[in-house]
Amino acid sequence: MKSKHIKPLLAASLFSLAPMATIAAATPDLAAQAAAEYRTMARYPEWSQPVSGALADPLLAGREATVQTQAGPAGAGPALSVWASDIRYSTGDTAYFYASLAERTASSVNLLAPAPRSAAGPWAVTGELVDNNGQQLAMLSYRDDGKDGDQQAGDGVYTASYVLPATHQPDIGSAKNIAIKVTAVNADQDQRVALGGFLYSQPGAQLTGEYRDRLSEGSLVIAAKVDVAVAGRYHLAGVLASALGESLSLSQNAVHLEPGSHWVDLSFYGLILREAGVSGPYTLSSVTLTTAGAMPNALGPVVTAAHVTKPYLNVQFTDKPFARADLLDAATRLEGLVKR
Description:
By secondary structure, the chain is mainly beta. The protein has helices at about 20-25, 30-40, 60, 270-275, 325-340; strands spanning about 1-5, 50, 70, 80-85, 90, 95-100, 125-130, 135-140, 155-165, 175-185, 190-200, 205-215, 220-230, 230-240, 245-255, 260-270, 285-290, 305-310. InterPro entries: DUF4785_C.
């Protein structure tokens, strides 16, 4: 099993080191600040980064569905907003799709232009599911009657559901984008159209639900057992939290796996836990396995509250900074430019 750590989600954008001369030329203070930030980031490895307890779980936050909103002609209200219950589904999953119509906010209105006529309901809402080859998968009828997945009758949120069929599933280990075109029409034939979508994902490996933890070289390692159907490259990511539910660290690992059962490690760098001042037991609050052989990646589900560790003491973990050479070198070069 080949293993290579990859950059964490939270810090990925920070690892594109800006041109040294550009930063230094802006202001000496900015260059000095950037150098200080690089030295702070260098305390931790790229595969394990601290997470502020005040922030949302980064894995769960990354899976939040995006709301797409489209007004009528010339910006006429009401605007149609559409979204899904998740950003990815697999064969057999029930996908829920939502739509609502609301007047535009003051910030979205051009006060210098004549106000277009606002259309009135009631509205009939339908959705067309189309795959990335343009093939229609289904036509859906949305409802606002409190039935079949609609949470509350008459609340203005229309709901449709669809069970992902095996007949249209992607090959195992791959995924494809599915678009949904949502149309709302009233009795006057006023129409609102908005586009949403999701990922139809068929991962090549699955988390089994088995985990084990150990202390290794001053860091906490949680191993996850996975069952692999097809050989390929896989990304495992997880968030470690305190017993009180505060996020502490995000860890990622990239591995090439052959078919069969394997244990894959997530290493949470010990200095993060030492500096947090929090002892165990810790919780693997979220974890997900992604098949990364082709684009788009085949996302697996995010499993929450996956594992509780032994009651490690925070003083058992290393107090030594990781000292990332690339970031320390960048900081040194910035500091040299500031002194010129």
